[in-house]
Amino acid sequence: MAKMLGLLFMIGAMLFGVGAEPVEDKQALLDFLQSINHSHYLNWNKSTSVCKRWIGVICNNDQSQVIALHLTRTGLSGPIPPNTLSRLLALETVSLASNSITGSFPTGFSQLKNLTYLYLQSNNFSGPLPSDFSVWKNLSIANLSNNSFNGSIPFSLSNLTHLTSLVLVNNSLSGEVPDLNIPTLQELNLASNNLSGVVPKSLERFPSGAFSGNNLVSSHALPPSFAVQTPNPHPTRKKSKGLREPALLGIIIGGCVLGVAVIATFAIVCCYEKGGADGQQVKSQKIEVSRKKEGSESREKNKIVFFEGCNLAFDLEDLLRASAEVLGKGTFGTVYKAALEDATTVAVKRLKDVTVGKREFEQQMEMVGCIRHDNVASLRAYYYSKEEKLMVYDYYEQGSVSSMLHGKRGGGRISLDWDSRLKITIGVARGIAHIHAQHGGKLVHGNIKASNIFLNSQGYGCLSDIGLATLMNPALRATGYRAPEATDTRKTLPASDVYSFGVLLLELLTGRSPLHAKGGDEVVHLVRWVNSVVREEWTAEVFDVDLQRYPNIEEEMVEMLQIGMACVVRTPDQRPKIGEVVRMVEEIRRLINTENRSSTESRSEGSTPIPHAIETPSTSFAH
Predict the structure, then answer these.
(1) Annotated binding site for ATP
(2) Report field, pTM of the whole predicted structure over 0.85
(3) Which parts of the chain span the membrane according to its record (predicted)?
């Protein structure tokens, strides 16, 4: 078998060695590598294909130019060598985040006219930002946070009509905030700088945290005549016709108290009012299900809480009468398929070992119940009593991803092809990113695993069981997916979700469970097994045999494997943020969703995937 694989490797190398090679781009990258300090993680070699083998490098469809550079956490240090990366004229994505790069903003980047995504965060850059951002007319995301950039924020940023995200947090920028009236801008963070003056009205749609840690004031906090003006440092003195300071102070304090009272009253009305015009705010309503008049305590026990947007109508008695089928038993409880008398089918999760009281349970349900996203399973209703805690979800007929991957072959088992696994990965990553963006970033999933993931109507991964980890005993959390730092799930970090996502991605690539028996009582941990195989430089053995019948996917699998391994490093702050993971996975998907790929597949039908070797850091991936 080994000889056959070796022969296939040689044949494949000869076949795939023929084709375009971006010679000039390759030399530019070699010059860059030669002139900057780096870790041994980069396997760039003049004798290998830059487009097929070089870690962190992505080429266009015909492999004639390098279009993306992903060098996050690769141990780069020192200034960026001049006249190196600036020669990659087709570059669309530059990711140099989380390194130790020094010096000023690379002036040569002005030659990269196609630049769309720029990630320079968490380095040691200094000096002013470039004065003319308009040279990058396609720029969509610019993250320059956690550096030492100084000077003012260039007004030329306002010319970027495609900009969706600008993150400049934690630098030394000063001066006033320019009026960046960019309709496409969805994310802005200027916190922790030395900015002063008034926040422009066009930017007041962003949360106050985006401007914290500066000397900025909202225009709403100023009198109307000063709303768009800088206060005069030497005002003309006039005779006082107004109130003295003590009286003015009393009015201010009284006004604040009154304002708080009004806001509190408004909040209470919004929470309990059953009707309303704000359709975007998801509310809940309690429905009396008991027809017996047995007192308030009995009625309270029979209340099911439904969330707005749920078109279900049933009570506890309906659930008890429903025809139920056990779908699965997990660490947090048992899931039933309940067929109601009106032919409605729902999934009901019966929780066990809940360690929190009613108030905390209901607060968590309210947080989870308001989430609506294509890649997050909506919580439709819940029930709480001292004896029972139930959660009601939509029923997903195809079952969980775990059953698709590890269920018995035959008997209706769904086989996941490569495109399906890609869509599951993209969906789960998007879902996690949405969860992490809710409630001021305070919400995490806490228990990501294949049995908690289903397919939505478009075939993308959809997450369920959000936030349950905070309600349960920490010891119940799925061991194989648990991040090393997550010894107490009540303190789970967003980075812990990224780790669990990485394990899931490795599971999709290998077809193996996170913990699987090797023989006897020995249990193999998937992360350790993947690292050991990759270190032996025989990456083909990692991938699921069910994927080997699909042609021309080996490069994509290797790139996805790199993402998965980056997510499961032991140190939380060395893992990529989930937003970065979404971008990387979607970019791989974008590159393969082209007519070129379709034509290539038709020409190469029946070809066999080629093994690849991946170099990994000896420390970062050790477990």
Answers:
(1) 358
(2) no
(3) 247-272
